[in-house]
Amino acid sequence: MRCRNLKTLPEFLPWRHKQIEDNEPTVTNSAALRISALMGFLAVGLGAFGAHGLKDLLARNGTVSIWEKAVFYHFIHTVMLFVLAGRSPLRSGPWLSFLAGILIFSGSLYLLAITNLKWFGAITPIGGLSFLVGWLWLIIAPQRKDKPE
């Protein structure tokens, strides 16, 4: 059963959208902070898991540096998620671009490192473009105001 009215969803759900004055759907700051915290948790966990639990597999595959690159970009952009989530109003465009970049760029590198299936490397640039879109968005429009003055 689908919920057609998002206002009936509980406030704590991260996928609940609020409408702002220009009718652009956005994630709440609270949800963005929770998702950012989850991404930080995963970055630490995956970094440790790669260094300890997957050490032999990554060495055997020759993909230790790929795993480290995935964790590095995951961490850097998680910090940006936190920075953006802490600002009001939330810059949902760049925030979502960085989140997508983490999932696609780092995610494809994690999978490549574990499976050694080279075609995952073809997906990685899409995540890189997502990172670039987020950064470019912040260059072009560094701040958004709630109400025009």
Features of the shown structure:
single chain, 149 residues, mainly alpha, disordered N terminus
Summarize the structure in short:
It contains 5 helices and 2 strands; from the N terminus they run ββααααα. It has helices spanning 29-51, 55-61, 64-85, 92-115, 124-140; strands at 17-19, 25-27. Helix 1 (29-51) runs antiparallel to helix 3 (64-85), helix 3 (64-85) runs antiparallel to helix 4 (92-115) and helix 4 (92-115) packs antiparallel against helix 5 (124-140).
Portion in strands: under 5%
Note the overall shape. Answer: elongated
Class from helix and strand fractions = mainly alpha
Largest sheet: 2 strands, antiparallel
**Uncertain segments of ≥5 residues (pLDDT<50)?**
1-9, 19-23
Rounded radius of gyration (Å)? 18 Å
* DSSP E strands, number: 2
- What number of structural domains do the residues give? 1
Mean pLDDT over the residues: 84
Distance between the termini: 43 Å
What is the spatial order of strands in the main beta sheet? 1-2
State the helix count: 5
**Helix fraction by DSSP (H/I, runs of at least 4):** 55-70%
